[in-house]
Write a structure and sequence with these properties.
The chain is mostly helical. Helices cover 67% and strands 0% of the residues. α3 packs parallel to α7 (98-109) and α5 packs across α7 (98-109). The longest helix has 21 residues, at 2-22. It is elongated. It starts with a helix and ends with a helix. The mean pLDDT is 92.
Length: 113
């Protein structure tokens, strides 16, 4: 079944990223070694956090708690949907990037922020 193969490949790509992360590789190094975009590796990290394969302490290494709280406050204050990032980004200072926003949303979703 081709659906099943796609799911196995997806699981495998996450586990490859996890293994490299557990070997203390930076996200940039993982992306380079796997010949993937950094944004792809960032999405793997978020998915691994979502599936409890990496922990809150791990995910917090990729942003600053002050930035994450600022993002959360903007989302709540403006009653923003979290499925579209650009409206959130437009209300934030330029030092906060899209990965910061995605991390904040992941933490909010898991009630860790």
């Amino acid at each position: 079944n081709s659906d099943w193969n796609i799911k196995i490949e997806k699981i495998d790509t996450y586990s490859q990223t996890l293994q490299m992360y557990n070997d203390w590789m930076s996200l940039e190094t993982i992306a380079k070694n796997r010949e993937l975009w950094i944004q792809t590796i960032e999405s793997h990290i978020l998915k691994l956090y979502d599936f409890w394969k990496i922990w809150l302490t791990d995910i917090l290494k990729f942003s600053e708690i002050s930035k994450l709280k600022e993002i959360k406050n903007i989302i709540i204050k403006n009653r923003l949907e979290t499925d579209k990032l650009q409206p959130i980004k437009e209300l934030l200072p330029s030092n906060i990037n899209y990965f910061d926003i995605k991390i904040a949303i992941a933490l909010i979703t898991k009630e860790d922020l």
